[in-house]
Amino acid sequence: MAKNRQFTIGWICPLPLEKEAARLVLDEEYPQEEVQYQNAYYLGGRIGKHQVVIGVQRRIGLSQAAILAEKMRAGFPNIRYFLLVGIAGGVPRYGPAGATSEIVLGDVVVSSPRGNHGGVLQYDKGAWEGEGRLNFRGHTNGVPGDLMAAVNNFRAEGSSQTNITEVLEQMRLRLDNDRQHQYDDPGPGRDRLFKDIYEHQGTELDDCRVCCDADYVESRADRGSGATRQVDKPSVHFGNIASSNQLQISAIERNRVQQEHDVICFEMEAAGVMDEYPCVVVRGICDYADSHKNKGWQNYAAATAAAYAKGLLAMIPTVDATCSAQSAEQSSSQHSANITNMTFGNNTGGIQARDFHGNVQFGRC
Asked: What is the pTM of this model?
């Protein structure tokens, strides 16, 4: 347990392929036998000045993410912050008319407060009411103030300072010859956004290039300059992340949730962690949360997320491991106290106020 106390950053990976990408951004990797708890091995190492322990979930889902976070905090008691880093399905475009932003495959999404939400929401949580309407009650705690400050400081540096391109190159240099192209950018020709009304025509194992009609595809060129990316230069987006235990594979449902809750990507873990632990979520976009899912972008999306997370850690001040656990408890309690819900009137027509670390925002419920 003595060596376990050195770790102050917990890094959660829902999938093994995300753990492999995380391994490649470590500046130093520690022997496996030195990083274990309750007969389970974790991946431990150093990124910059931070001591980082990386765990992978046994299965996907909110409860599994919560279980892993709980075990990691118990086994590595000086963890102060968690990063949840992996892949997700993205909303192709978001924002007001005339000022929309385009998300393309390989881009990165970071949980950040937007509108009435604190960065992550469980969109399938609530109470079913008349006419099949779900009265939404899936608010989660937002990103803690000190972590949010790091995100904002990193964001203020601009895309030229995120170093994603350089980190991707460093990751590839660590691969053996058989895996040299594992984290290559698949390129715009492999980025196919289908019209919302057009469902996947084959099985989940069938490649869209074989079974789906290309006439329904919007290429990056069709989507305009906002969807243009140079090789290994993904854009980073900041906003609300939709989380649930349900795999999102419907373009129509994706659009509905996006319009109702102002989200920009979908995943299945973050809501299980955010309410209990100080955490920021970083997701690489591997599909468009529709029926045309494929695995062709998963490795690259995992790599871009890991590369961004490494840069973000450089913006987070190091903490003394001997006092980190106490600081984490204080941060968690303050974090919970800083986020409140107050509803005036009924749920459909009242005014809702949410306090995200001192910023009060009002909107219709």
From this structure: 0.86
Contact 219, 188 (CB under 8 A): yes
Calpha distance 194→258 (Å, rounded): 17
Cα 351 → chain centroid: 29
Q: Say which CATH number the domain at 145 has.
A: 3.40.50.1580
- Confidence class for position 355, pLDDT limits 50, 70, 90: very low
Joined together, the tokens standing for residue 249 give 């594979």
CA-angle at 35, arms to 33 and 36, nearest 5°: 85
Task: Answer yes or no: is 345 within a domain.
Answer: no
State which residues form the domain around 311: 3-184+235-339
Amino acid letter for position 155: R
Contact (CB, 8 A) for 220 and 188: yes
Q: Which helix (H) or strand (E) holds 218?
A: strand 217-218
Tens of pLDDT, residue by residue over 119-144, are: 999 988 866 566 666 666 666 888 99
Contact between 43 and 31 under an 8 Å Cβ cutoff? The reply is no
Coil, strand or helix: which one is 73? helix
The neighbouring-strand residues paired with 29 are 45
Distance (Å, rounded) from C-alpha 109 to C-alpha 87?
9
Structure tokens at 154: 């990193």
198 within domain boundaries: no
| Total domains in the fold of the chain | 1
Which of these, 134, 166, 13, lies nearest to 84 by C-alpha position?
13
Phi, psi dihedral angles at 243 (to 5 degrees): -130, 140
- Distance CA(46)–CA(348), nearest Å, equals 49
Q: How far apart are CA 289 and CA 267, in angstroms?
A: 9
> Cβ-count burial of 82 within 10 angstroms (0-12 exposed, 13-18 middle, 19+ buried)?
buried
Mean pLDDT of 200-218: 89
What average pLDDT does this structure show over 292-307?
96
313 found inside a domain: yes
**93 vs 72: CA distance, rounded Å:** 36
Q: Is residue 203 part of a domain?
A: no
Contact 84, 147 (CB under 8 A): no
Are 195 and 216 in contact by the 8 Å Cβ rule? The answer is yes
End-to-end CA distance of the chain: 47
In sequence order, the β-bridge partners of residue 89 are 266, 287
